Amino acid sequence: MPSELRLLYTGVDDRWGFDAGQHLSIIFRRREPKALVLLLALVLACLLPFLNKPVHMDDPLFIWSARQICAHPADFYGGPPINWYGSPMRFSDVPKNPPLASLLSRGSGGDLRMNERALHAAMLLPALLAVWGVYELARRLCSRPAIAVAIAVLSPAFIVSATTLMCDVLMLCLFVWRSSRGLTACEREASEASFYRPS
What we know:
2 domains; mainly alpha
């Protein structure tokens, strides 16, 4: 961690436990916002051509779940049986994921006539948040975070997954942000322990 951040890290938090100086120094450090904005723009440029991409693979499961959420919000995996593996099965037996991606699709679909452009546009949000989260994580763990993020998010696995309606990129987004916040908590705990250690 840079020395200016280490000094701010041991500062006094306000009454909500938010260290404003530390966060503002990260946001307004000169080169970091430019690199992050460029990475976000680059990923956006890679994903925008796929807004009209037809649904495929497991995308229909998320769309059906979104429709079910519209009809019965408390029963997101109810609905009629589906033939996904060659014989009719309860819908709840087929998807093995929490309904967060379907909730995101439901929020973008309006009356859920399933406009592909709107559905894919909604999935841009977790993709861009994942880029930002990977950047935050890389900034803590290496000296060239922009290069690390470019390697991670411009890989075919990320780009292909980010053009679907499935929950892979959303899961990555939540994972990297949780990891970044976990590192923040560990660093804060370590700095507080060293601050209070008797000399």
